[in-house]
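Technical annex B. To support the medicinal chemistry partners, we prepared a structural model of the target in complex with 4'-deoxy-4'-aminopyridoxal-5'-phosphate, based solely on the information shown next.
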Amino acid sequence: MADPLVPRMQGFGTTIFAEMSALAVATGSINLGQGFPDTDGPPAMLDAAVEAIRSGGNQYPPGPGVPELREAVAAQRLDRYGLEYDPATEVYVTVGATEGISAAVLALTGPGDEVIVFEPYYDSYAATIALAGAERRPVTLRPVEGRFTFDPDELRAAVGPRTRAILVNSPHNPAGTVFTRAEMEAIAAVCREHDLIAITDEVYEYLTFDGAEHIALATLEGMRERTVSVSSTGKTFSVTGWKTGWVTAPAEYVRAVQTVKQFTTYAVGGPWQRATAYALRNELPWVEDLRASLESKRDRLITGLEAAGFTTYRPQGTYFVQADIRPLGFTDGMELARALPEKVGVVAVPTQVFYDHAEAGAHFVRFAFCKKDEVIDEAAERLRRLG
Ligand code: PMP
Ligand code: GLN
């Protein structure tokens, strides 16, 4: 039988996260591939979800999200970034950041439009842009003095008459870069000059290290009115399975997002929303402890990877370290990632799948450090056998 999949989704196959997590289960390996923590979120937030279920909050919530979450999100954007959003018209709750991004891309771009992404890019971006019928234009992040960054001239050169939007992820998965104010200003300048819409993916907004500050693009001059900001509960509160996210944007963009989102999922699970509202208001001190603990886990994994012979790039945020495999005599990260579980019982993700120019990322693999210390230590011990 011919493949029934629509042509624009051909080639997307199975996500690398699903493939590698299945491989981890099948081989009983330590999974440092898919980024999810192996410890739970704040106990009172978990209790709030249980309480929401037990107290009858189990029917359709309002499509835009429960008012208490929209208000908590608006308060968070104001407290943390000084950005004012009207909870009634400028905040919209989505099924994780993934749906926030896809609803924004589907609502705002279409055939004939180009969307700029920084590669390596989070895998859903390429699929979502394809689903919209738009085209992606990658700008490559390259290691410069130990951190992945872009050349502003390359960014400017990527903009053409058909460019409609730019997707900006900072802290950046999988590179680990937190864009500096100067980098964000360069992006903002291009957006203003060419009248682009910015869609920002800020899911790691709290998870930054070494004092690196997350700059919300919407705070820069002339950007609030053209930026659709996206974030979610999963990473901030260590509940990646809750799939509760939100979009904040000017009302006309939120209306556009709503038009799409109401027909993809209509609404988001009520108990998760109520518990997230509780957490945004009460659990930010817990998040600060998480951030500090991830910073030390990052250092722990880097020490282990270096001892095993990899060259590493010290991320300023996220869950992930990029490791260059060439010092160990390997050249193809895909081959190594597929062999690693058999060889030593550890799963990683080949970074090349996040590029259009796969050669730029061929020699990197991504390891996650959002794991218990003993898990990181055991993985490092096993990886030492590679040398
Ligand atoms: N963007 C990035 C950069 C991510 O790493 C992830 C994975 N958490 C997502 C979006 C998806 O977030 P969510 O699970 O809230 O849909
Ligand atoms: N964000 C997670 C990662 O980068 C994966 C989420 C997913 O499986 N789609 O590892």
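Notes passed to the chemistry partners:
The longest helix spans residues 284-308.
The mean pLDDT is 97.
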